Amino acid sequence: MDQQLRDHLNTLFTPYANREMVGELKEELFVNLQEKYSDLKSQGLDDLTAFQKTIASIGDIQEILDGSAPPLVHMDFSMKNLAQGDFKDVAVLDGKFNSSNLRKADFSGSNLVNSSFKSSDCQEANFVGANLSGALFKGTSLKSADFRESILDKTEFRNSDLNHANFDYQVLKGTVFQYCSMKRTSFRGATFHQVTFQCQLKHTDFTGAIMDKLTYALLKGSKADLSNVTVR
């Protein structure tokens, strides 16, 4: 039955063979379909009925590729070479992008709530407009990454390289920056609400930033230049 599932997926994806990330998505769907088929069999369905119900659950491939389908959950893109990968406007909740090459990958406009990027190379990655609420970046290389207009509610950056990263005019709520390298990181015009910093920030740009008293108090002890910020 596994081969029948693979053959069916290959047929469905044939028109989209040139699209980015088709191979990864097809493999993830195959694993999900195997689990679906096994579950239906355990309910007492015969082979043919279980197979028909399984393939009927796939939905519209075009919608999945365009990101208009219901969000994918728990997809695992770990330990893969996805440099310059096209993840624009995708929806992957609780996804795993650990120990992968994601240099210059495009995540703009994507929904990546609660996703994990541990020990990955995300240098120059584009996260503009992405929803990264609850996401975890730990031991991640994010040099020159662009986070403008993204959602960073309770996002955690731990032990990561954020040198030259761009957070200009960003609104940060409950975001955590712990033991990160932040040389020439830019927060120009950003707004801070209960943001935690445990980093050396001597060369971080906070020009025009607006922050609450708690965030300001934390930053004062980190050698940050706060001469051009507003406290509210």
Automatic annotation (TrEMBL):
<keyword id="KW-0677">Repeat</keyword>
<dbReference type="InterPro" id="IPR047928">
    <property type="entry name" value="Perm_prefix_1"/>
</dbReference>
<dbReference type="InterPro" id="IPR001646">
    <property type="entry name" value="5peptide_repeat"/>
</dbReference>
<dbReference type="Pfam" id="PF13599">
    <property type="entry name" value="Pentapeptide_4"/>
</dbReference>
<protein>
    <recommendedName>
        <fullName>Low-complexity protein</fullName>
    </recommendedName>
</protein>
<dbReference type="Pfam" id="PF00805">
    <property type="entry name" value="Pentapeptide"/>
</dbReference>
